[in-house]
Amino acid sequence: MFRGGIPIGKAFGISLRLHYSWFLIFLLVTWALAALYFPETYPSWSLTLKITAGVITSFLFFASVLVHELMHSIVALREGIKIQAITLFFLGGVSQMSGEPKTAGDEFRMAAAGPFSSLVLGGIFLGIFYALHSFSSLPAQFVAAISYYLGLINILLGVFNLIPGFPLDGGRVLRSIIWWRNKNMQSATRIASNIGRGIGFLFIIGGVFLAFTGNIFNGIWLVLIGWFLETAASSSYRQMLLQDMLKGHTASEVMTRDCATVPPDITVERLVNEHILSSGRRCFPVVSDGHTEGLMTLGNVRAIHRDARNTTLVREAMIPLSQMKTVSPNEDLGNILQILTENDINQVPVIWEGRVVGMVARDNLINFINTRNELQRG
Questions:
Q1: Are 170 and 162 in contact (CB under 8 A)?
Q2: What is the pTM of this model?
């Protein structure tokens, strides 16, 4: 759901990103702290001090969310699951995993790590508050005020994530317990997802009720959270069903084999006129002397201004082979679906011994899934 974003660095080899919605919520949280919370709690503070406290608290709050997600990811890495990225967005954070846990125990440890870290952080911040709040100096009061808020918000974050609604951490803990009991991950995911959807609908109903009784701001928040839970629960279960349907089948079964190739030294304009418009194809392997150099897609063409297409060579506009996501003919279709989804691409070349032997596009996977569904109904 939130795969895009602005890269801000790496931690433990995991890419860290800020989703565009994060900036909006960062401003809202900072405003709420600087204009409402700190003025009400510490009315003697200057406006500059209140704004400074609001900015610092907001940054530390999102740093706490990042720690929460990193704990999930560190446990996942120890269990052999690769983490592509962590993205902070308007409702918190999300980790992009390359696969599902292999056992119920792995799932339990991964899910519990996040809320546990939030509760520990909450305890640490509250400890700092109780150590400093009795001092009358402004620096001590400043740190104590920030620590108190962060202590409460981290405990709230930990408790909220323990709500047993998939895909919240509590829902994943619930799934791990059901999985451990019935030894069936698909059944456990279905049950946990339905519970997650139910909780999402309850949040939406509660939010609408609050909005109509005058508490519009909190009502909108509850509706947003409920919408997120219901959508995430539904999409997580559908994703798992697709993965199960594709498992055991390989790229060679669905790939398009008649890949039309183009040389690297023709212009983009010639590519459009002689290949794209005449064939309707959307991507072309770029091949020279039997060696694949890269891939040319409609996206690459659109990136070149119309006036420059007559002087720009395909070699200059293509995606080089070294930067391409590629698979082998024996690659599992479930893995290919993950590659397409995680990298937000529409097709992936199938490479064998240094040359393109086929292409697997989203359409290939959709046709395969539809055919299997028709055969099962028959």
A1: yes
A2: 0.70
